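Following up on my earlier message about beta-D-glucopyranose. Here are the inputs again, as you asked, copied directly from the submission form:
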Amino acid sequence: MKKIIMGISIFAALITMLSFSINIEKDHMDKSLSAKERTEVLLAKMTLEEKIGQMNQYNGFWNVTGPTPIQGDAAKKYKDLRKGYVGSMLNVRGVDEVRAVQKIAVEESRLGVPLIIGFDVIHGYETLSPIPLAEAASWDLEAIKTSASMAALEASAVGINWTFAPMVDIARDARWGRVMEGAGEDTFLGSKIAYARVKGFQGDDLSKDHTIVACAKHFAGYGFAEAGRDYNTVDVGTSTLYNIIFPPFQASIDAGVKTFMNSFNELNGVPATGNKFLQRDILKGKWNFDGFVVSDWGSISEMIEHGHAMDLKHAAEIAANAGSDMDMESNAYVDELANLVREGKVEEALIDDAATRILQVKFELGLFDDPYKYCNKEREEKLLGHQKIQKASLDMAKKSIVLLKNENSLLPLKKKGQHIAVIGVLASDKTSPLGSWRIAAKDGTAVSVLEGLSQYDGNKISYSKGADLILGTPDFITEVKINTTDKKGFSDAKKTAERADVVIMVLGEHGFQSGEGRSRTDIGLPGVQQELLEEVYKVNPNIVLVLNNGRPLTLSWADRHIPAILECWQLGTQSGNAIAEVLYGDYNPSGKLPMSFPRNVGQLPLYYNYKNTGRPTLPAPDVVFWSHYQDEKNSALYPFGHGLSYTQFEYENLVVKPKANGISVKIDVKNIGKLTGKEVVQLYIRDVHASITRPVKELKGFELVSLAPNEVKTVSFTLTEKELGFYNNNGAFTVEPGLFRLFVGGSSKTVIETSFDFKG
Ligand code: BGC
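Thanks, got it. Here's what our run produced:
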């Protein structure tokens, strides 16, 4: 027996040596080999340090087109780059800059492995589309995909080949500033949007020069930060994890996403970055993900502050063993991993696995064949701000607007003979509409509301800012300062409003009030804006409230008093043009809310797909023992899926029938108004009894239909086991036959209802 084992070992060693020597002889630059083969060949040539180098990502550390750094951190990073100890850089942008770093990696390092260049291309590069939450309000998957592909086109022209997007974190708490970066509160919608965005960025062929690698982030649970405070602890149960948080990540994999980013938060006691369950068991195990995982910024070293790692070396050990393949800016891998391997604390096989994943993506991008393929000066000049990118951004902006309220058809505005007062400092702001994720967009490049309106010349426009919102010039890093006292402009605003036929008040949040690190406990109109609104209302109640914001706001007063409310988020470069077209009815709004708008911040977290509880209703008049608040309703002010049009739709003839492998649903939708319009037809189900309780409503289908006046369209859906089942608490997908309710309509609230028995 011993002999047999020895024989097998010798044979295995021979095979390894043989394949090693074959790989040494083969050339990783040989294009006739597959990406996988080329990766194997290259890996066999690499030292341990070079392999670890691939797992190291540095931030753009000096102006590479300037003098070489000779001391300090930048000098060390420069040396690492020349040694081949850097696999990727982020925040290096522009053809000249990217070419310069790439040249060092390719021409000065021993093996010449090219860098993958990452950047937060979240909703555009220099030309911005609406913030992702706004785009989600379009429910228009084709437009969202196009928006991502335009972002990829512009970014790829400036040397970037990897975006840290889409953020697919589900978020139920509007206090969390990063809700602006996701697709809102719903898993079904969020999964469809995740898929569309990945396809938009990556296309079907990564080797093309206009497609870039996407990154599904933040794995996992980042959107469930306690109390909506960014980076805060996350503690969620298995059911929420599998049914709510995971599906958009799975959809990203279905779309072929090549990278994942882990997360700052701890999940049930273990930081996501060092979480083996998430990265090895689920992502690379159960889901078979073959791309690579990058840490979030410094999240490996942050495991020390979390109280999980003793020091940087320990953090590197935990992260590498847990499946974090690339270290963003912790310096943990480049400084510590080689020793950890030598000490036997991290197996070299894991380093090989991580480096293989990273190298393979570089081969697929075509970087080995042409490391400068994204560094074409002419292309850069031609594509930055290209008309077709601007056009797509305008189209997306119009589709993202949501009409929340429109009493007495105050909107659309008449095009002639009106005196319109425009009030609010945001009306003239050309930077705020760019949002907070706009590192490459230049200040003042958005079209303001005033500029948009000025293109319609049939009315007289008078403007008064009313009051400042922000003090000083806000930026990406520093805390914004809000004006809470200066009301000197109120009287001018009132005088301007008094004389007008209609008042357009542009209020809300500055673009730098949402985003990373920008959580709020009060989500009403910030500063003195609520007071301004109430003062102007006293002199002229004929107000259209145009909202600019990066999260749901509490708008109870406005809802009670203001006749028309238009949700315009931060709409990007073309903001003012899109808003003007909608105000004047040249574009009929069709957006629907991707997040519930609460009545009161105390209701948060608030979401339409809540559980019923054992005490959902009032047991008898005035009895307190049911799940409610004493001082506020349970329901949202504007529910998920809500959004009006300048026309109206009617739903009838709901037909539900069993079919071969599921349930068929048909509904007639009719335009009963006077204008052509689009409606998002939404289908929800409720699994009435299940081994794991199911939400009172779950979105399971939607379709965007365009209807001329009086036109009727039959919309069909099929519900299969995929829509009718759920994950149990062991993470297994389960389908339980039984009674289901089914709801169809234009929001999660306004619906017609039936039920069916699913036989399985
Ligand atoms: C964010 C990530 C982002 C990264 C790189 C982090 O602070 O959480 O989403 O991609 O920075 O800029």
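One observation from looking it over: The longest strand covers residues 649-659. Hope that helps, and feel free to reply on this thread.
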